[in-house]
Amino acid sequence: TLPDLKYIRPVLLPFFNPSEFLNSVFLIEDSCESNNSLNNLTGSGFNLVYNQNYSHTTSMTDLENIKSQCSSNSVLCAAGGLANSDCILLKSCANCQAVLTPTIINSPVFVDSAYWYLTDGQSFGFAPDSTVNQHNADTQDKSSPYRLSWHLNGHGGYRLGNITDLNSDNNYKKYRKYKLKIKIFKFQFFGPKNSEVAELKSKRV
């Protein structure tokens, strides 16, 4: 039984190349500490460019619009967390242009430390290994807490770690970070300190 919580799916995009955010898939444990929050990442130089409930229909156009804001060294974080909360439960960060480049179905591309896929009409997401089952979203190893998958076929959902079947769910959200009404490329940000990243209560793949 799912907890009576709302989940969100954010996407975060900075305009610098914070190497400490690469090679990382973070699974946030137990409590939501400040370093695991959206506000903390925003303060570290990320912009929230996508923030929708899991019931929302994510489209290729959404992702293409985000990619148009990327430079060659921009880093994008895709994540999921609780709605009506600042918590992030799962996130992975990698080169923006690389992870938003279309892939062949069930053929994810290794970028930094995760396998990413973006297949029009199927799904977008990441996994800890190269085995995915895009039907349409990734249904591989439903017990894995390290997989994130969003439909791109006209449906909401689908997956936040080992929580699945979120197609009509308003309890969770999907992210990419706070939607700014001004073009984010007008700003320059500085990344988080290594000490701040080290304090994340997380597990690495």
Quickly describe the structure:
The protein is mostly beta strands and 205 residues long. The chain is 11% helix and 30% strand. It contains four helices and twelve strands; from the N terminus they run ββαβαββαββββββαβ.
Structure write-up:
It comes from Brachionus plicatilis (Marine rotifer). This is Kinesin kif17. By secondary structure, the protein is mainly beta. It has one domain. Helix content is 11%, strand content 30%. The chain contains four helices and twelve strands. The strands form two sheets. Strands 1, 2, 3, 4, 5, 11 and 12 form a seven-stranded antiparallel beta sheet that branches. Strands 6-7-8-9-10 form a five-stranded antiparallel beta sheet, with no helix packed on it. 43% of the residues are buried.
Name its key features:
205 residues; Kinesin kif17; disordered N terminus; mainly beta; globular; seven-stranded antiparallel β-sheet; 4 helices
Put simply, the count of helices is 4
Number of domains: 1
Biggest beta sheet attributes: 7 strands, antiparallel
What's the assembly state of these chains? single chain
The whole-angstrom Rg is 15 Å
